[in-house]
Design goal:
By secondary structure, this protein is mainly alpha-helical. The protein folds into two domains: 47 residues, no CATH class; 102 residues, no CATH class. It is 71% helix and 3% strand. The chain contains six helices and two strands, in the order ααααββαα. The chain is flat.
């Protein structure tokens, strides 16, 4: 039969077990607090101040380079810019009108107006409000994408070629072509190159 454990030893063992439990429970908080303290000490150090000064200097130098590279537009550049903006805005407005017309012509939301599908709605399909919004979003995205592609790859090139034709008729030669990707397999030659080779 083992000898009874003294009261002092039992109290010491209970205290050590309580401290272990408390340390295991608060270890994540202690780690987070220690990390915050280390970050605060680093933020107040001279190394952090040097890093902040270097960052501010780099940002300022980058801004000065951007400002120095800005060139004032010419009159032709301003006219071309505003013409392009007007065309893009008109194309976007027309895309919105087409989207609204197509969706409202083919679909209708179930509601009090059509007695939630009991009354006739003509040739339009009755859908829920969520489906109507989804159809409107998909249709608007599709029509907007097609309009943007048409404006960029057809309309703007059409305008550039019209300017070239007018310049050739007035004897001023071909105007500068806008940057555009060449079609696969097509030779990278222009009308001027062909005329120079012929001569």
């Amino acid at each position: 039969m083992s000898a009874p454990t003294p009261r002092s030893q039992r109290s010491t063992a209970f205290a050590s077990s309580d401290s272990i439990g408390r340390s295991s429970d608060s270890s994540p908080l202690d780690a987070a607090w220690g990390a915050c303290q280390r970050w605060w000490q680093w933020a107040r150090s001279e190394e952090a101040r040097d890093a902040a000064r270097a960052l501010v200097a780099d940002v300022a130098e980058g801004g000065l380079r951007v400002i120095g590279s800005i060139r004032l537009p010419t009159r032709e550049g301003l006219v071309e810019f505003f013409t392009h903006q007007i065309l893009v805005n008109v194309a976007g407005w027309m895309a919105g009108l087409v989207t609204a017309h197509v969706v409202t012509r083919l679909f209708e939301v179930r509601g009090f107006r059509n007695l939630w599908g009991l009354a006739g709605s003509g040739d339009r399909t009755l859908v829920s409000a969520d489906d109507y919004r989804l159809i409107m979003t998909i249709t608007g995205f599709t029509v907007g994408l097609l309009t943007m592609l048409f404006v960029r790859h057809v309309l703007m090139r059409w305008i550039a070629e019209t300017r070239n034709v007018r310049a050739e008729r007035t004897g001023g030669g071909r105007s500068e072509q806008p940057d555009r990707p060449a079609s696969p397999g097509a030779p990278a030659t222009t009308l001027d190159d062909l005329e120079a080779d012929h001569d």
